[in-house]
Each structure stands twice: as C-alpha cells, then as structure tokens.
Amino acid sequence: MTEPGPRWAIIVHGGAHETPPGKIAASRAGCLAALTAGRRVLEGGGTAVEAVEAAIRVLEDDPTFNAGYGSALTADGTVETDSALMDGSTLEVGAVAGLVGGRHPVSVARRLLREKEILLTGEGAHRFAATHGAELCAPEEMISPEQREAFESHDTVGCVALDLHGHLAAGTSTGGLTGQPAGRVGDSPLVGCGFYAEDGVGAIALTGEGESLARWMTAARFIQRLPRTTPDDALRTVLEEMGERVGGTGGGIAVTPDGQVGWWYTSHDMPVAYMHAGLTEPRVYLKKTEEQANDQP
Ligand code: ASP
Hints:
Elements: E1 9-13, H1 24-43, H2 48-61, E2 81-87, E3 92-99, H3 105-112, E4 119-121, H4 122-131, H5 145-150, E5 157-162, E6 168-174, E7 195-198, E8 202-208, H6 210-215, H7 218-225, H8 231-245, E9 250-255, E10 261-265, E11 272-276, E12 283-285, H9 288-295
Parallel strand pairs: 3-4
Antiparallel strand pairs: 1-5, 1-11, 2-3, 2-6, 5-6, 7-8, 8-9, 9-10, 11-12
Helix pairs in contact: 1-2, 2-3, 7-8
C-alpha cells in the first residue's frame, strides 16, 4: 500500500447569484486568476492563511466582483467593505466591517488576525489599517466606473484552503448588498455565519443573503454537520434548511482536513475555481451540472 502524497487544496468563489451572460467569461477568468495566486502559495509550502489572502486580493482587484475595488454601492453611493480571515490552526479571526478607503480589506483582516480583537468596524477599522501599514485610498477610488453608472449588482468573494502542513483557513470579502443602507453589515465578517475554519474539522466560506446566513449561523451548522457527511452534502443541507427556516438563497465552498473540496448553491449559479494535489488541471465552473458532466467517465 502506498502512503498518500502530500495534500493541499484550494477553492475560490465569485458569489452566489445569477451571473449576467456578459459577465460569465470574466467571472470564470477572475476565479481562475485568484486560484492560481493561491495555489502558488500552497505549492511553495506557504500557509493556508497566506494562500487565502493572496487569492482574495486578486478578486478584490477585479471589478467583476463585489469585493474591494468595484464593490457594490450603498444607498448613499459609497463603498463600505466587510472582510474576514480565519486560521484553522489557532482559531484566530481577523475581520473588518464597514471599512471605507481600504484598498484590500482582506489584508486589513489578516493584520488583525494575531490581535486579541476579532472584528473592527468603520472608523476604528480604518485607523487600524492606517497604523498597521495596510494600503489605503480615497473612498471614491474604490468605485468602478461601472458601479458609478449602473449600480449593478454582483457578488461577494471567498476562498478556503488546506496547506501542506495540514492547516485550514477561510476568508471572505464583500461590498455587501447593492443599495444597502450605510452601516449595514451582513454575514461576511461574522464568524460562524459567513465563514469558519478549524483544523481537523473543515473550512467554509459563504455568500448570499447575509441576513439569512447570519440568522441561520450557516457556517457553524455546516461545521457541526461535516464530520458525518461529504462537504457537498453538508453545504446543500444547511443551505436548503436555511431557505426553509429563514428564507434566502446562498452558496458555499468548503475544504476538509483530508483535502476534499466541496461547493453548493441554492442561487441560480456560483462561479468557482478549485485545485488540489492530484488534479492535473484547475476546475472552473459556473454551475454544478458542469462539474457533474465533467466527472462522467
Ligand atoms: N453575503 C453578503 C452580504 O450579505 C453578500 C453576498 O454574499 O453577496 O453582505
């Protein structure tokens, strides 16, 4: 019997929603670019936290997605971002909410990761970013021309990863919901709601209707269910139950301690890209049916 080789795995998503036809190619390409950045970190022996940050930074730079530059606008026409990172090896969390003028919200979250506080909001988050060397910009610089003109709705991003050291991490980044009242915060920076990571158990990042995901504590329910089933099945169950009990649709991505990757959505579609040790090339999908067709012998 041969020993299993070293394992690593990573999956990113570009939001659970209905991807407009004109955005499908850009969504796939953006997810693949982010995956590539994260994968490089993992293959080089970097940590899952580093890989998740690297992948999400790429998605935050891409105005196709509702994270970082090009985020959805609030009802006031401003960009307020939420982001989180969790280290499954220490259960440390760093998260920001209502951050204005932070170029890479996920990197502010990463700087907070080793601090006692787990979540900073608004002005406090901005001050923390400034004093800890995170990239700042004028608030208007976060608004893409497309958002300024169209207020177009597109979605949140996330990433989960397993590194060669056996550690898990999860991250999220979003501008929230298009037209949300200023100050509104969804699930994305809330531990146990929009994300979770625990070595030996699993890692998850969610997207979708934040109020529902938070009220259902969707990430926490997933983590409790995962040891008894596959990540796809656990995601499907918690998202369907959420829809039945509190309403709302969503999607999630997950990685298990042994490197299984899972994803599911109850929305129309959810662009994802994933790769793990043993796969010959990355998988990039918009719909679960594409994966099922690809897996047919
Ligand atoms: N969950 C995010 C929020 O409610 C939005 C999204 O995932 O699209 O802020």
